[in-house]
Design goal:
The protein is α+β, with helices and mostly antiparallel strands. The protein has a domain of 85 residues: Alpha-Beta Plaits (2-Layer Sandwich). Strands 2-3-1-4 form a four-stranded antiparallel sheet. A hairpin with a 2-residue loop joins strand 2 and strand 3.
C-alpha cells in the first residue's frame, strides 16, 4: 500500500476510445458552391418604415472598423446624403444607418464612391427576410 493513500483500493485507469469525427474541411469547396447572381444587389423595399442598415467592408481585407470613428463618419456624411449614423460592427465591417430606404438604396449603387475608397457595400439577406414576414 502506498503511504499517501487513504487505505482504499487504487482505481484502475480506464481506457476509452475517442471517436474520430470525419474531416469535413476537404471537398466542401468543390461540392457546394454558393449561388450568386452577377450584378445583383439586395435593396430595401420602398415601403420600409424602420431604419435601414447597410454594411460596408474593405475590398483589400483592411481593418476599416479599427479606423478613427470621427474620420469614418466624416468620410461618409460628406459624400453620402441621408446618413443617420455610422457604427463599428467588427474590425473589418462598419454599419451605416439610414432613416429611409431611398438613400440606402442610392448608397448601394454608388459605384464611383465605393470604388474610389475600395469599399464593398451590402445588405445581408436575413435583414431583408425579417422585413418580409
Amino acid at each position: 500500500m502506498d503511504p499517501d493513500s487513504d487505505g482504499g483500493p487504487t482505481p484502475t485507469e480506464q481506457k476509452s476510445k475517442k471517436r474520430k469525427l470525419p474531416d469535413t474541411r476537404k471537398g466542401n469547396a468543390v461540392d457546394y458552391k454558393i449561388f450568386t447572381k452577377t450584378n445583383y444587389t439586395r435593396q430595401f423595399p420602398e415601403n420600409h418604415s424602420v431604419d435601414c442598415v447597410v454594411y460596408v467592408e474593405s475590398q483589400e481585407s483592411e481593418k476599416i472598423g479599427n479606423k478613427n470613428p470621427i474620420t469614418l463618419t466624416k468620410l461618409f456624411t460628406e459624400n453620402v446624403k441621408g446618413i443617420a449614423g455610422v457604427h463599428r460592427v467588427n474590425a473589418y465591417k462598419v454599419g451605416i444607418m439610414f432613416r429611409k430606404p431611398a438613400p440606402a438604396n442610392n448608397f448601394l449603387t454608388m459605384t464611383h464612391f465605393l470604388g474610389k475608397h475600395k469599399l464593398k457595400a451590402f445588405v445581408p439577406a436575413p435583414q431583408l427576410k425579417l422585413l418580409e414576414s
